[in-house]
Amino acid sequence: IVNGSNDSQKPRDKLLGGLLTADFDEDSCLSRYQSSLYRKPSPYKPSEYLVSKLRSYEKLHKRCGPGTNAYKEATKNLGHDGQNYANKSVGECRYIVWVAVYGLGNRILTLASVFLYALLTERVVLVDQRKDISDLFCEPFPATSWLLPLDFPLMGQIDSYNKEYSRCYGTMLKNQTINVTSVPRHLYLHILHDSRDEDKMFFCQKDQTLIDQVPWLIVKANVYFIPSLWFNPTFQTELIKIFPQKETVFYHLARYLFHPTNQVWGMVTRSYDAYLSRADETLGIQVRVFSRRAGYFQHVMNQIVACTQREKLLPELTTQGSQVTTNTTKIPNLKAVLVTSLYPEYSDNLKKMYWERPTSTGDIVQVYQPSGERFQQTDKKLHDQKALAEMYLLSLTDKIVTSARSTFGYVAHSLGGLKPWLLYQPTRGKTPNPPCARAISMEPCFLTPPTHGCEAKKRIGSAKIVPFVRHCEDLWHDGLKLF
Ligand code: GDP
């Protein structure tokens, strides 16, 4: 058995090349050490430097995390108004708070981004737990917690933070209300699709000299901003050491951080064992429809068929009535197709196609879609758990087709270490031609990057600043991704 959950099989490389610590109790989070049973051996090993950074981060988090004296000191008087400057003693630890906004794919990409920024700047990441994060993921750091305590002094204000907020970094920069002599104790970073360059460029060297002195950063983000961190030369030197293989950034970070809870893992393994484990080959197809009136569209269905047949991901069908000659020596291949979508019609149609007519190769095609939730219901526990289970299942397939611009799809293929075939976004209700393209790397796309690099030479587009970022295949001359 190559993969599969055969109990007699010892977990291979259960610590993922040293990425994971052995310090956790296995039963409380089965996915952490069992995931290797469901995957082929990884061709991508984490660098020793990444492993050592993670072990030092775990120590830092334990020293500064909730319940410690350092945390108490850092939060003392934080909520009080007045001259709340950082020049007073605030303890030895600095923090970055991740606030849960937008869909689950967005959340996973931004949490990974915030974590990498924290690794680079020696901050402690704490996550807003008021949404269902603890129903989705296990604790990633041993003997401490990544959950921001509910009595965090700024908790009552966080939801109202936006670009207009007086402690929003981009706004302060625009209004020139921030300088080294008046460093606030907390700053809000607005890293959303509607951010200004002032917000997006917080990581540049000149910004960092100031931001580094701020004990508390609160972040709302919905974009994967990791590709832009390479614009800062100090970070770049470090990043090259941490990730010698540049397209593996999200892949390693996600396998380190995101371990589905036992409830979600049960959904993953039950689907896997029932529908994927016995197949000779598996194909994932993620269908996300972004048009205003979303649902089932014939042109999207046609696009899925055109892409999978053109790229030889699925066999063609023979004309009605024709019979494939039975070759007794050839055992037919079983191809399992895992479809995920809010709409069940795409997989229903695919299933019908392969039932009504034989394949030209004689191969057998089995189609399975775990859920069809119809509409997005973010923050509903079971809905989000299904979404996570499906992203994870997609990441276990051999090959994958995903939808342009979808962070749900980005998480699925990057976590799986897969270069996807990207279905272009249809315009004016037409099937795009070509229907899809193979991605150059498995990294997620930063959909709304800054327009230029840190040195403000605005004529140099952001895709030309460092040699290992490019525009994304699924956006026309836009977006940024590592390869
Ligand atoms: P994006 O909008 O495609 O970038 O992905 P997000 O994950 O950020 O937001 C979409 C949300 O819609 C998901 O988190 C789910 O709640 C829901 N959703 C979209 N597609 C699917 C799907 O294929 N399966 C499930 N279970 N939920 C989906």
Automatic annotation (TrEMBL):
Its membrane topology: Single-pass type II membrane protein
Coiled coil: none
Membrane-spanning segments: 95-120
Keyword field: Cell wall biogenesis/degradation, Glycoprotein, Glycosyltransferase, Golgi apparatus, Membrane, Transferase, Transmembrane, Transmembrane helix
Superkingdom of the organism of origin: Eukaryota
One GO cellular component term noted in the UniProt record for this chain: Golgi cisterna membrane
Pfam families xrefs: XG_FTase (PF03254)
Record EC number: 2.4.1.-
UniProt KW Glycoprotein keyword: yes
Similarity remark: Belongs to the glycosyltransferase 37 family.
Protein known as: Fucosyltransferase
Source species: Eutrema salsugineum
